[in-house]
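In this section we walk through a basic example: taking a raw amino acid sequence and producing a predicted 3D structure, encoded as discrete structure tokens. The instruction is simple. Fold the sequence below.
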Amino acid sequence: MVVASLLLAGCSKCGESPKVVDAGQPVRRSIDVRTALVYAYPEYRGTALIDTTARVTREIPGLTEASRDEALKKLKYEAASDGGAGWNLSQFHVEQVGPQALQVSVSLDADHVGHLYIAHTGLSSQEMAMYLPRDLPTGTERFELELHYSSSPEKCAALVQQAVSLLQATQQWTVLRAPEWDGGVPDEFVAEMKNDNGARVTWERARGQVHVVYSLVTYER
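The resulting token sequence is shown next.
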């Protein structure tokens, strides 16, 4: 299985940057979208991708409308013209998702996702964060890759089990919860894993659909 081989090979490098810590300095981490995708969705054949979004959410202490608008103006963002909330810059979309939080996101269609499986490099969480204002303070920051796919109920259950097994095989991930794979898998279940770098992957399976979220705190004090 080509994708499984890529996963195990990629895990030899962990795919995520380790914690970068100096005394009194913030913790920084990074991951590329491709690695997160392969962790969360290692086998895509026989499935239909419904939607995929990569996002970075940053808490900005003291954020005001004036400071937000001035910072986005410097980055050349323009207000969304499709009636939606937020601001657009090329394929990047920024929204204010809390009183002091901005989020930059990129939507990926099936062609983009297919290309990521074979690309040697891809967009990283650190690169995405560059599309958030750099002259405003950063509290915490989180990267997420969220995707939905559909297939037969049996295949959806098998694909989640496969993803969990592949991450376990790296010996870098721990199962937080999962069904008894040999005991008759229910129509709806949640599986969740974490690694020592603070990353988590959650799979929610409801019969013929799976909702997956990979998350990693990329900046914290």
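Looking at the output, two observations stand out. The CA atoms of residues 56 and 129 lie 6 Å apart. The longest strand covers residues 48-59. In the next section we compare this with other chains.
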